[in-house]
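Forum: Protein Structure Q&A
Topic: Joint prediction for protein chains with partners

I've read a bunch of threads here and the consensus seems to be that you should model interacting components together rather than docking separate models afterwards. I'd like to see that in practice. Below is the full input, 496 residues plus whatever partners are listed. Could one of the regulars post the assembled result?
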Amino acid sequence: WSDHRKRKFPTNFLFGAATSAYQVEGGWNADGKGESIWDKFLHDNPDLVADGRNGDVASDSYHQWRRDVEMLRELGVDFYRFSISWSRVLPTGFENEINEAGFKYYDNLIDELLKHEIQPMVTLYHFELPQPLQELGGWTNPLSVTWFENYAKLVFRRYADKVKFWITINQPNTVCMEGYASGIMAPGLNSKDVGGYECAKNVLLAHAKAYRAYQTEFKKKYEGNVGISIAVNWFEALSNTTENNEAAERARAFEFGLYLDPIWSKKGDFPDLVKKIVDKKSTEQGFKTSRLPKLTAAEVKLIKGSADFLGMNHYTTFQVQPSQTQFEAPSVEDDRNTEYTQGPAWRAAKSPWLKSAPYGLYKACLHLNLNYDYLPIIITEHGWSSDPGLEDQDRVDNMRGYLGALLLAMEDGTEVKGYTAWSLMDNVEWIAGTSERFGLYEVDFESEQKTRTARLSALVYKHIIESREVEDAWRPSNLKIAITKNDKKNNYRVEL
Ligand SMILES: CCCCCCCCCCCCC/C=C/[C@@H](O)[C@@H](N)CO[C@@H]1O[C@H](CO)[C@@H](O)[C@H](O)[C@H]1O
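Posted by a regular:
Agreed with the consensus. Here's the joint model:
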């Protein structure tokens, strides 16, 4: 695990930084933008936000996008992962009413990126459904599959010539289980028994329809890649007992297998383990049909193989044992029956769920290799939360630890094509507001321009990108960052 051989990222490995629309853009109702579920959720529940800062203004990227691109140039990244706000371009969610001013914002951003040879990696859906669609049931309505497909096609049509990396949906696990089951994210539904699973089915179908549409209409001409980002944190047994090993297997199946298996497993469909548990409990609980919806043979076929790459969002590791308390039933929690802890000695970030355990990334990568036949991966998010402050040594240590683990996983056969730091800048961390800072750049939320200043981690990341290696002892002489010409900039056409 820790020999001292020098390992380097290959020259065609891509480095990037990420944000999402609600978290950075602000301009929540500017120039004809419609209301999204996050606008409504936090306007209706202001007390939910830890420090009261919601996404109304956020980091003001709606106006500060030139500075954002300048920061990306300072870092020397190959690509910028950002999301399009569905409500900004289609205020009602439907394609009959297009907000040209909203599209203009993304036109400007994309053109500015390309002008500086930074590739746009566009996420079509990062947690923000247009509110009018939520009022029709949101992702629990089977029509959501068509709503998303139509929206995706419209955006593909507009940008297929400029955007070569697409992510359909960010973290279906979060969208469904935190939005519809636990309700701690928008739209805040508490449908612990059925809603989360219905959402999972529809989100997967929506993703697959968008993928197939790209294949049919755009792939040949534009040769872009379409993937999906899934939260793949690592879940392992708290100790080596049969009960704990089985609980860890359940955690992996419910937390990410539910979304990975239908796309990448040999037979497609939801994991057998999840089907077996939910089907059995549903019968015992008096349901006539399983709370886990069935995928028809045609749906299994549609979803299977519907991605050019896995966008892996990885932050941390959880140690798993069977739940020590009885969950309310019926519920996803009761189905999964797990309890998570984290190593007491692991360094803790500002977010209560986030501790540093780089070996977990290595194990997760090997797990994916073994179970999903060496699928191509781009790390589409990894990051660390802190208090404000420019000397973020913890973030630096975390990034170095995880990039070191990634190099080992690649050496051991994992097909990783790129890495994305979350986040380019401080932003609205959902209900944590701005109380948890994830940025390589600090944002002064009190200032008029939402002034951005490079942290130590920005300089270290820049050095890693330039040198393509992780040097623990490297430190800049000061915290000034400037744009350097990078002749070796990657040509983004990655072979997947
Ligand atoms: C003894 C302590 C044990 C702590 C156990 C806590 C149990 C918590 C239960 C699980 C909670 C899961 C938390 C994991 C969350 C991340 O995977 C998720 N937040 C990643 O989402 C992306 O992360 C960014 C930073 O949070 C976010 O800003 C971005 O929008 C998301 O795409």
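The chain has one domain: 14-467.
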